[in-house]
Amino acid sequence: MALSVSSLASAFSQLSLPSTSAPHPLPLLGLLPSPRRAARLVLSASAAAADAPEPVEADAPAVDEGPEEVLAVEAEEDALSGLALRKYVKQRLPGGFAAQRITATGRRKTASARVVLQEGTGKVFINFRDAKEYLQGNPMWMEYCKVPLATLGFENNYDVFVKVQGGGLSGQAQAICLGVARALLKISPANRVPLRSEGLLTRDTRIVERKKAGLRKARKRPQFSKR
């Protein structure tokens, strides 16, 4: 047993084990690129730097001025469209509103509308502007302008040209409705019966009652105070 232990000890002493303090060089070899791969990396980096766009400092202020220029162009286009529409209406109405054949006047509250009907496709122009733009896209106000035409089935047969003043948009729209209904009577007296049955020929005389002296409004009184 003693011989076997001594022989094992001598065998272990003859073995050359690697030192743990010194770093192993093999893993570092895998991290380093080969000469051929290093040359490829250098060439690719130089090509990417050549293809990259150079920063231009003069173009930076143009980005800030872009929205302002777009708004200016849009405003100019709107002005041109407004002028073109005014010119179109004047071409359709030679001599003005008073020189036309089918005209009528409608009133509501403090609004007064002068209406002209011409054969067309159902377009409505108010004060040289499109009706949808003038009435702010309100469907009820736009419906007022076409109710008499729709009652007779003429919504796509006549164009309506209006010059209106006074009151608000709601009163102006109802004044246009009465004016269109009265203008349709000049086209044919037979239109009176269907328009009258729908109440489109009746002038609505309701207005806001004036304020009275000593009252809050037309009839509202101040709160009573006993002392």
Q: How would you describe what is shown here?
A:
The chain has 227 residues and is α+β, with helices and mostly antiparallel strands. It has helices at residues 2-14, 26-31, 35-51, 60-92, 131-134, 139-152, 169-187, 192-197, and strands spanning 103-108, 111-119, 124-126, 129-130, 158-165. A hairpin with a 2-residue loop joins β1 (103-108) and β2. The longest helix is centred in the middle third of the chain and has 33 residues, at 60-92. The chain is extended.
Spans of at least 5 consecutive residues whose pLDDT stays below 50 are 18-31, 59-64
Number of helical segments? Answer: 8
Rg result: 45 Å
Strands ordered across the widest β-sheet: 1-2-5-3-4
β-strand percent reads 5-15%
Q: What is the structural class?
A: alpha+beta
Spatial shape: extended
The string of secondary-structure elements, in order, is HHHHEEEEHHEHH
Largest sheet: 5 strands, mixed
Instruction: Give the distance, in angstroms, between the N- and C-terminal Cα atoms.
Output: 129 Å
SS elements, strand count = 5
In helices, the fraction of residues equals 40-55%
Quick check: average pLDDT?
81
Name a few traits of the molecule.
49% helix; five-stranded mixed β-sheet; 5 strands; alpha+beta; 227 residues
